Every structure is written in C-alpha cells, then in structure tokens.
Amino acid sequence: QVQLQESGPGLVKPSQTLSLTCTVSGGSINSGGYYSWSWIRQPPGKGLEWIGYIYYSGSTYYNPSLKSRLTVSVDTSKNQFSLKLTSVTAADTAVYYCARALVVPQGYFDYWGQGTLVTVSS
Amino acid sequence: EIVLTQSPGTLSLSPGERATLSCRASQSVSSSYLAWYQQKLGQAPRLLIYGASSRATGIPDRFSGSGSGTDFTLTISRLEPEDFAVYYCQHYGTGFTFGPGTKVDIK
Question: Which of B47, B54, B100 is facing A109, going by the closest CB pair?
C-alpha cells in the first residue's frame, strides 16, 4: 500500500518561498514512467487546483498559471519529491496535497497524502 | 486548455434517492482520461471512477460513470448517508484539470 506524507512549514510570510516535501512509502518513486508525482492545492472552502508534476527521471510539467514561481524536484534516493513556490501571497493559502497519478493507459490520482495547511500571513 | 464544468453546483437529495452529476468538457476528450473523486470535509479526495466508467478498487457498485466526448455523468443509484460529500471530475491531458465540484447534501 503506497502512502504519501507532506511535510513543511505551516506558516509562510508574504513574498517568501513556500517549501514542502512529500515522502513516499510502500512503493518506489523509481517505479517507471507509468506514474507521475503531483502537487495539488485547495484553498479553504474552494475546489482543487493541480500545481505540477514530476516523473522519476526529473521531467516536470507545471500549471501555466504558476509556472513562473514554481519548482518541483525529486530525490529518488530518499523517495521524496518537493515543491518550491516563490513570492507567495495570501492567495497561496491552501491545503497542499501530494499525490501519485497513473498516467498510462489512463490518467488519474490513485494515492493521496492527507494534506497540509499552509497559511501565508505576516 | 480543457475547462471542465460541473452541474449542478449543489444537489439536495434524501438517502435512498438517485443522484445524477454532470461534467462537461470545453472540447472533446478521451474517455480514458476522465476520472471522478469524492471528497468529504477534512479529507483528501478519493478516487471513485477512472476511464470514465471503471470503478476504482473498493468502490460500491451503486457508483457508476458514463459518457464520452464532452459530456460525462456520475450516477449514485441509491444514496447512502456516507455519500453526502463533494464530487469532482478530472481530466488528464498534458497536465491535469479539475472541475469546480458538485456538493451533494441532505435534503
């Protein structure tokens, strides 16, 4: 059973960088190109927004609306992937989820972390 | 970029009733890449349906998905108390897109 766990600061000041890590257990990030590893967020009381994904190889694809501020990276030796979002504002306050997606032959998220609330405030 | 629209925004029903939720894509999409999720308050989303009509592991058969092209439907044949939640459709292209969600609440 694959499990994902987000970790990182719960409070970030405006204009600073939001950094989160997702640790994967019960399975390997290095499990081939059928899986991508994503970050998804959900502002309080609102819907889901996909942020970006990375493959085990390090290839990435980002939501165009966040691309200029976003970096997603992977550390296969630690079975982790990470998110960095720069120049944050209150609009970046959200529950942040990490998730695994099967992308061949379908595309869907089969495992999710429990989510972590990140508040942007001074 | 594909935009997903869900209707209605809120569906008020009683336990035992049938729920029909709609997801419309802004252009034709492959059924292989259309999924549905259930989200309860304070929890991560749970995969219900993938490939437009295939139930995920452990999902009761009262949940079914159908559709093709631009119009997709999630049906809950008889609502159980635990089914009152928010439901999202999702598409995978080069990236992922979620619909805005349909809340199913108790009438």
Answer: B47
